[in-house]
Structure formats: structure tokens, C-alpha cells
Amino acid sequence: MNQLFFALAAARTTYALLGGFLLLASPAALAQTGTASPTRKWGSWTIGTVVLPGGPKGWGGYFELQGRSNSVAREFFYNEIKGGISYDVTDNFTVLLGTGRYSTADYRDLSQGYKALEARVWQQFTFTQPISRIKLEHRFRVEQRWTRFRNDIVPTNQARYRGRQRYRLSAVLPLNKPTMQPGTAFLSVYNEVFFDPRGPYFERNRAYAGAGVQLSRGVTVQAAWLNQVDWQPARAQPGTGLFIARSRQFKNNLVLSVVYRIARAKAEDKTPDPTPFQPD
Hints:
Strand order of the largest sheet: 1-2-3-4-5-6-7-8-9-10-13
Largest sheet: 11 strands, mixed, barrel
Helix content: under 10%
CATH architecture: Beta Barrel
Oligomer: single chain
CATH class: Mainly Beta
């Protein structure tokens, strides 16, 4: 009975934290102005990740492929190839150095190649925090981004640098078992905010809610809803003398992800199964 009471209390605390975080990230709370995108069509994200957990000396890493489409499983326009090297400083604190290639195209004419091609490097700091059966993750990421545009896109064939900072609060709750292990069904939620020091300072917000199953020690699958909101800065329209007000665009997406965790030495079999936080 006491375990049930503490689990319910922890769940209420977690959802209160995430709910408050979502409220603070909302455009109303931040006094943002603008109009929503008229597009209401759902998109989809497909993510495949291979994770090498930290070994006896703490070193690990991951590799990920990701594709996105403007409609569910149709009108593909975006892909990512990325990976990183991680180091477990303590049991609940991990640092990571990552890099990736990000390509955006026009889904109406993929034969034209990319519209924008981005190279990215980032430094990441992750803290995990257990609260009864729930596990929280605080993730901080600092990004350096270089984007090159196609010849017919303005600015023409130029590489542009922009930095960005991100913070994500995640929570995972196992449902049918007290801890994560093979056969465990779970709920997963997170909210992530993106900051651009050059403006718009509050650039993007992602809200995620999903469910998954740990099929084995090595394989976890998830399906989720993800809402992404992007804010565009106010700007002058070249050659017209018109001023375009600050605006926002949002889109709902179906996310399907598979994570494969590489097994290390047999001695590690006694360690707890990892919490399935979304690697993206």
C-alpha cells in the first residue's frame, strides 16, 4: 500500500513538473505573438538507434538514423545521420560529444537534391533522477551548426553558422513491472525547449507523449505523438518595404522508434536495464 501511495505521489509530482514546464514554454506565458500555420496535416518521424552503453571505464556511444515526412509515411523530405561518444562520470551523470549530418529537401521534387545541408557538433550533459518508479532525465545540449544552401536558395551556396542551446525534461514510468526489464510496458513523456542566442531567442518547443515495450535486454520500441512549434523572427520583406510580423508554425507528428542496445561483457548482465529515454 505504501509503495502504491509513493508511486502515485511521484507520478503526480512528475506530471505537475512537466505540466508547469509546458505552460512556461507556451507562447502565452512568454508573451510571444504570431499566428499558427494553416497546415494541420500530420507528419511522421522514423528513428533507428544503436546504443553502446558505458563500459567498466565509462566509455560508450551511439549511432542513429532518422527520416521525417510531411505526411504519415509519405512526402519524405528530411533525414539525419548522427552519432556520439559518451562518458559516464557517475551512475546518474553522463557527458557526450556528438556530430551529425542533416539534410532537408523539397518532398515535391526530391530529384533536385537537398535545399539545406547542415553539419552539426554538440556537447551534451545528462542527469537522471529516480522518484519511486518514475525516472526523470534532465538533458542539456549546446550545438554548433553550419548550414549550406543549394545554389537556387538564398543565401546562394553559402555556409551559415548558428549556435543553439537546448534543455529537455523527460519522464519514464514502467507500467506492469516495478523496474525496466524484458517484457515491461512503459509510458514516456518529455518537453524540450530550444534557444538561439541570435534570435528568435525562444526558437522551438517539442512536446512528446508515447508508450513502448522493452522486448528484450537489447531491443525497445516506442510509438508516440510529438508536437513541434517553431517561432520565426519579425523581419522586413526585401524589395517591398513590407514588414512581416513574428510568427509561429506548429505540426503534429507520429513517431516510431526502435533502439538496439549492444550487450557488453557477461558481468554486466547483473546491472539494471537502462531507462528507455528517447535518444533524439
